[in-house]
Amino acid sequence: MARIVLNNIAHRYASSATAAGAADSYALKPLSHVWEDGGAYALLGPSGCGKTTLLNIISGLITPSQGQLLFDDTDVSHLPTEQRNIAQVFQFPVLYDTMTVAENLAFPLRNRRGSNKLGNADIKKRVDDALVMLGLEHLAHKKARSLTADDKQKISLGRGLVRTDVNAILFDEPLTVIDPHLKWQLRTRLKQIHREFGHTMIYVTHDQTEALTFADKVVVMLAGEVIQTGTPEELFRHPQHTFVGKFIGSPGMNILSCELAGDEAIVEGCRFALPTRYPALSGNIELGIRPEFIRLVDTGKGAPVIVTAIDDVGHHRIVRALLGRQLLDIVVAEGVAIPANPGVVFETGSIGIYQNARLVSASFAEKTT
Q1: Closest to 104 measured CA to CA, from 171, 174, 177, 155
Q2: pTM for the whole thing?
Q3: What does the pLDDT look like over 297-314, one tens digit per residue?
Q4: How far apart are CA 260 and CA 278, in angstroms?
Q5: Least packed by Cβ within 10 Å: which of 157, 170, 191, 310?
Q6: Coil, strand or helix: which one is 291?
């Protein structure tokens, strides 16, 4: 395993570098980051945000336009993929259809040379272990071409996991073609494998559920930039950017335009108590509150809202409402009555204030008031 260090890594594709030095020409903006040895990480963001570019820089499929990439203390910035000792699993299965499942799993091990060459007994043991890990024992001697898309992708995962001495295992949206029920099982199994073997794992996805259930730390990306890194709990409780607030959660955080008046926020003429006093701030000022931290109350006991829809998702309901002209999502537990003329109360300690999409820290607010 390896500690992976990014020192001012950035990348421009030739076709996008229309203006040398222009920030918007970067597919990946300058980034410094560390993935600790043995960690389970996810790169999360929408399509085109730069997460696969970053993964391919780590694997060696792309040479960065600038910066330095280290595995532990070794500079691998310009080393080819085969010299980095990594395993990579792609979005779609890469297999040899004429080989059996077991032969496909053994292939990367049989190709090793020199001091890394393995004997037949070691290869068989690793293949047998991988078959058990992924529940493929009954298919060991079947040709890959006869298998379902789900089973083919499980083999691709196995080809990454069969190598136990790699610096890192990289996953590029590996569960895209997998049946939804099986996705949950495989994510759980990957997490178990990580805990058992301690591989450094980096998992690319645009699916927040995949990221939050797999990773110890999630790196959220937008437009070629890392905008927050944290545990699933940190991303949910303390989003540092309005994009993170809206992207994480189902439904995401409510982001409401507001004005500040010391320790109160004014939204559509309604006042909400804040956890601290804020100074006068310029730019685009917004209040962030998650749907889970809003209570519906009788009219007159909170800011009045108009309910426009109710979505029942089984264990709770999502109430869609209007606070003035602004949309509001509210999570209501199953069995809790919805008032005929409702108002809303915000949990004060769960409110965040954002200036130009970035969270204004409470410590900053306290120092400047």
Answers
A1: 155
A2: 0.87
A3: 998 899 999 999 999 988
A4: 7
A5: 310
A6: helix
